[in-house]
């Protein structure tokens, strides 16, 4: 049985016109009513057809931006770059910070559908994609950013995380390091997993393996600092530490110094992202730079192209994955291994 607005109204205990107001964002709907209707929509897995979307009027010129967190510096910079580029192109941005919570993702998807967004840019914190089916079935163009969203978003824009991992390991190996530890977060992140893949592949090609890997679930200084301290205490043979992000690497620098050692004299430390903080920490952090703003701007360009194709009902498009090159930035936190 096909779900209709009448079914939603019955489950929500309200009228068809009230459901229509919530779906179309036309007229007043109290927060309590909106919550009831959205709960019924989620329960019935209702998605408007493409024809229904077109009947509701002109494009909304609104874009949904879903990110795991905006208090993590990387995602804050990314959100700003995307919002500014969308604004320049005449779009408004609905920023959804999901707190790396799958239920939050699902609720935001329901909200974006009700707001009739023209497209969505999303960095999902999870491998699961079922809750994104509603966007795909509503024919809303989607671009995945910083990680792929297989089966949902045919378009993805991300830094070349695996190559970045290789560059990190290669730099330390060229400096003579053989006992290399890894500390980072979040463990479930697709970009972090790709960086680990690159690191281990480069080391394996040189007949090596990481001496230790310590990963946290939360991407923060507070979560990675104790891991770095424990790594130093338990593995005295280490001469270098790879941080899977700049935040993790900065935490490692603090842990080394708090142990009474020096960077890079006693330990070399390298990070990934090239956040502004990387150039201000002491010593200045050697890191892999990914063009965060460039990734965001390219994602906007791809989404606008998808929206234009959707409006003219063009031919089915081929899936594409854009990998943006990364660069090694040599600063002061890495040096030759002590002999």
From TrEMBL:
InterPro entries: HTH_LacI, LacI/GalR-like_sensor, Lambda_DNA-bd_dom_sf, Peripla_BP_I. SMART domains: HTH_LACI. It comes from Rhizobium dioscoreae. Keywords: DNA-binding, Transcription, Transcription regulation. This is LacI family transcriptional regulator. PROSITE patterns: HTH_LACI_2 (PS50932). Residues 3-57 form the HTH lacI-type domain. It holds the Pfam family LacI. It comes from the Bacteria.
């Amino acid at each position: 049985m096909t779900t209709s607005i009448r079914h939603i109204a019955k489950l929500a205990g309200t009228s068809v016109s009230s459901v229509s107001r919530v779906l179309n964002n036309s007229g007043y709907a109290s927060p309590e009513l909106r919550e009831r209707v959205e709960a019924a929509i989620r329960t019935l897995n209702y998605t408007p057809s493409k024809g229904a979307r077109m009947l509701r009027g002109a494009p909304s010129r609104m874009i949904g931006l879903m990110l795991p967190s905006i208090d993590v510096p990387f995602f804050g910079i990314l959100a700003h770059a995307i919002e500014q580029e969308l604004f320049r192109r005449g779009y408004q941005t609905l920023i959804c910070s999901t707190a790396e919570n799958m239920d939050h993702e699902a609720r935001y998807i329901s909200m974006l559908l009700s707001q009739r967004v023209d497209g969505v840019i999303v960095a999902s914190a999870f491998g699961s994609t079922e809750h994104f089916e509603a966007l795909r079935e509503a024919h809303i163009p989607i671009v995945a950013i910083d990680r792929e969203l297989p089966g949902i978003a045919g378009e993805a824009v991300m830094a070349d995380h695996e190559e970045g991992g290789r560059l990190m390991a290669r730099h330390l190996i060229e400096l003579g390091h053989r006992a290399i530890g890894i500390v980072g977060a979040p463990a479930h992140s697709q970009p972090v997993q790709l960086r680990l893949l690159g690191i281990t592949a480069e080391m394996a090609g040189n007949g090596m393996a990481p001496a230790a890997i310590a990963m946290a679930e939360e991407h923060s200084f507070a979560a990675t600092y104790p891991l770095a301290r424990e790594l130093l205490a338990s593995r005295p043979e280490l001469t270098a530490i790879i941080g899977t992000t700049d935040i993790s690497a900065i935490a490692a620098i603090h842990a080394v110094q708090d142990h009474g050692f020096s960077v890079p004299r006693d330990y070399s430390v390298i990070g990934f992202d090239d956040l502004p903080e990387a150039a201000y920490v002491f010593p200045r952090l050697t890191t892999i730079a990914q063009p965060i703003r460039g990734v965001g701007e390219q994602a906007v360009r791809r989404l606008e192209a998808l929206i234009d194709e959707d409006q003219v009902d063009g031919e089915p498009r081929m899936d594409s994955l854009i990998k943006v090159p990364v660069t090694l930035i040599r600063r002061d936190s890495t040096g030759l291994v002590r002999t």
